[in-house]
Target: glycerophosphodiester phosphodiesterase
Amino acid sequence: MHLAGVVPFIFLLLLLGCSARPLYPLPSRRNDKSKQPIQTFRPFNIAHRGSNGEIPEETAAAYMRAIEEGADFIETDILASKDGVLICFHDVTLDNTTDIAEHKEFASRKRTYEVQGVNVTGYFVVDFTLQELKSLRVKQRYPFRDQQYNGKFSIITFEEFISIALDAPRVVGIYPEMKNPVFINQRVKWSSGKRFEDKFVETLKKYGYKGSYLSKQWLKQPAFIQSFAPTSLVYVSNQTDLPKIFLIDDVTMPTQDTNQSYWEITSDSYLDFIKDYVVGIGPWKDTVIPVANNYLQTPTDLVARAHARDLQVHPYTYQHPYTYQNENQFLHFNFSEDPYNEYNYWINKVGVDGLFTDFTGSLHNFQEWTSPLSPDDEDASKLLKKIALMISEFSKT
Model:
């Protein structure tokens, strides 16, 4: 990376680490007409929890880094605090990715709740107010990833996340997930009987997110709504026409709300049903193509059957950069330790429409190499010459 790109990013990191208040209280209202539009001619680069392979997940810094690296969409998981504020956080417990264990004032908050049919013990997000959550600091999930940013960044709200996308120098889409809606609705209550899903859609509407896929409104502020819970997707389809993605878990995991098996929700009849509410599916990639002994096996026909119903396919998660050797544990042996081989396989052989990645820059570099956003100078020069010739010929007539 050039030094000119490093200096402002480091400056932003220092601001985030030192600021005692949220850096993004409200999005700015800059002139959207001057922004580079989102690309729609190649598979979407979806920054999974931000550029979380480099910076702790779901933090403002991780999302800004992803935008800098070329993400089309920044992806987040939405949960709710005890006082009903929507926040960006993946786990229902705080144990794995925050410093909660160091906060002795919260020692008595450990609980055991049932989550998706399993008893889970830990410090639950829903037992802490936003102010208390803001006092915690986020840390890297995996020990083999860069630890230098541990303790520097706080949990952010859904609104702060949105403002990061709206303040980007180009059009950047958002890809929020309604996370564990059954559990959240059991534990957090809002006035007037509103549900978690209602608050989720209200927030999107507040900041102008609306419009069906590829509509003029959507292209101005692109967004996908995602969830593993089909009833939540059906519910919000009556409130917003924003495109929705049905996430599909491992073959062993039933749906959290309807208790349907993987085989039920990937059947032809179910795809025929859900296509009326969603524009695509988001399966775990190792269910699209099964794996044995770290080798890909015979691909399933899920992608073909989805495409036959005009459903997009956005698999998750591509968890490696190009150079970090420790990440190769996520890279199947078929690809000779080269993530570009994997990207090429999924994009050009399997034909997926978007990819969730922990390393936005790696995928962006591959796509710029194989299908660049802009033609090179020579091609641009040839195009200008053709236009000049056409004008010249026209003026002679």
